[in-house]
Design a protein that fits this description.
mainly beta; STM4215-like; 5-stranded mixed β-sheet; two-stranded antiparallel ribbon; rod-shaped; disordered C terminus; Phage protein
């Protein structure tokens, strides 16, 4: 294919399709699972419509081929965005989307995918360190640090251990 137009969605209704073109449609989004960093997930549904004029030799085959190429480009592509902010695309379907446009004189094949976007600030700091595990069984005051015993890693320094220590085996004694 010698040239390909990426057509602005607002212009598609005013544009005559005279050569292979792609219209990218952002359809809608749905909530997803919050990330481990605390970021909210938007699962955005996107469709790339590949339009080929019927005057093009083997228009249907060319539209199918272009849609397959778009699908390969989309697969595992984060489009240069930090992976902390975007997930891998989840391709849903590739098929005839010509009925959506109602254009005469074009063959249209679309590739639809869900693009997870992780927007907003992290709730948890990247440099937050977790150095040990502390345990309390049925504490009287859950906010009292004195009711907890360090169970991992075991401190070996005598001044850092007390009678509430879980013992050298790493288990919890009662």
């Amino acid at each position: 294919m010698s040239s390909l137009d990426i057509v602005d969605y607002d212009d598609i209704w005013r544009t005559e399709v005279t050569k292979p073109s792609i219209v990218v449609q952002i359809e809608d989004s749905h909530p997803g699972t919050r990330q481990a960093t605390g970021r909210y997930t938007h699962r955005v549904i996107i469709t790339a419509h590949c339009l080929i004029p019927v005057s093009h030799q083997k228009a249907t085959l060319t539209a199918i081929d272009l849609a397959a190429e778009v699908e390969r480009v989309i697969d595992n592509n984060r489009f240069g965005i930090d992976p902390k902010c975007i997930g891998a695309p989840e391709i849903q379907v590739s098929g005839d989307t010509g009925y959506l446009f109602g254009f005469d004189g074009v063959v249209v094949r679309g590739v639809q995918w869900i693009q997870p976007l992780f927007l907003g600030k992290d709730y948890f700091s990247d440099d937050e360190l977790r150095g040990s595990i502390w345990l309390a069984v049925n504490p009287v005051d859950a906010d009292d640090k004195g009711e907890y015993s360090q169970i991992w890693p075991k401190e070996t320094d005598d001044e850092n251990t007390d009678e509430n220590d879980a013992g050298s085996s790493g288990g919890v004694t009662g």
